[in-house]
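User: I'm preparing a small set of examples for a lab meeting where we compare how different chains pack in three dimensions. I only have the primary sequence for this one, and I'd like the structure in token form so I can line it up with the others. Please keep the answer compact; I'll paste it straight into my notes.
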Amino acid sequence: MEVGEVIKKIRMNKNIPSNKVYKDVLSRPAAAKFEKGLSDTSVKKFLYILDTLNISLEEFEVIYKGAEDKDLKYTSNYINAYYNKDFAKLQKIADSASKDYLESENEKFRHYQAIVRLLIDDLNETDIYKTEVDVLKQYLVQCNVWGYYEIILFTNSLSFYSCEFIDIVYSRAKSKLLELKNMRRYRNFLSLPEEVTDILIIEPLRYSKYLTTFNEEEIINFINNNQTLKAVIIDYTLLSNAFSIDSFLKKIKSNVFIFFIKSTLKLDQAGLEFANSAQLLLYVKENKSILEYIKNLRILLEGQRCTLGSSLSYYEVCQLDYPTFNKDKQYVRKVMANNKEFSYELKDLKNINVIHPSINYEESFDAPFLFLTVKNNEVYFKLTEHITDYLEKYNITIPQRNSFGFRNLSLETIQMNKVDNVLKIAPGKINGLRQQYLLQAVQSFDKKNI
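Assistant: Understood. Below is the structure token output for the 450-residue chain.
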């Protein structure tokens, strides 16, 4: 059935005269020809006709395609087959997608085939089809601006990607999701609908190559509007007291368990690292039916705070009762401020990428360290060699260590994706001579234009 024929069917079902639909749009002969399927019209006129008929473009697409939507059928079929562990059906779907791709040369069928093959690998715990993920990644990366299809493809294949790849394409996904979030029809294609989310795990600042941050407003809306969510776990180790728990809780309307967890080793002991300890805070709205559960949980957790059966020494346990332990917000603020100032001094480099939330995202976020990246490992080794040589001229040595939150700065080489080297700089609290000379070393290397 042609587009004009479908329009005629909708118009007649609504008992709308043709002269009202096509007035100032199509002449009577042109309208008759259009409704017989003998001609088409411009997009502008077509959208005007839909508006006159009080029907959305999404509704028209459903009517035009008829009862069977091939895309939805593919998605629902492979999801059901996967959860039922139906290997034969998954293989049949992959073969069908391959056939449709050969006949139509439409890339989406190649993508369906790749996803289904990866699901087969997942169920079998094999890596026979591991290269299929490259088909999906290559397509997503080459699309500079994502549309609805790319969002659905990304969401339905999310579990196959590394954290680093997700970080790379996240900004494209986020901008399009904000446009589509209120369009209910798109939810039909998602493999993991929000209705089945039981536990949400959040890192306000994530230890990834791009130090990605969470959108607090989006997270709070999700928590408040999700009917099945039972618990939220927030790991705020990288922010410590720079993350406002009180401010976050004031916006929560939903009755869920909220666990706040963090390591207290780095930022909560004045940079001295007394005890390798952690903290867990539990918040829940007042509810008499779970008071007994809360009491028992508290007894259990408090029972772990003893030297017997723990790795802490008596000395370390005593440190937990030191008055400023985990309460010195001023120290955390100074560490964050020094990192922000250090990053700002480097933000205009031409050949070195500076990664810190305060300069990489629209909203200002804190972080206790920053990353420097260059175009390849060869240049990276030249950078680190240059820094070492530059500092040696002034008899300066900067510790190489796996940490952050110290009073003095430290450096560390890390490999986020087991390939590319990244230089982590943790300036600490004190902005002294070593920090200034390190800035000069990095800036002088950038001017070499290697």
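A couple of notes for your slides: Residues 70-189 form one domain. The two ends are 61 Å apart (CA to CA).

User: Perfect, thanks.
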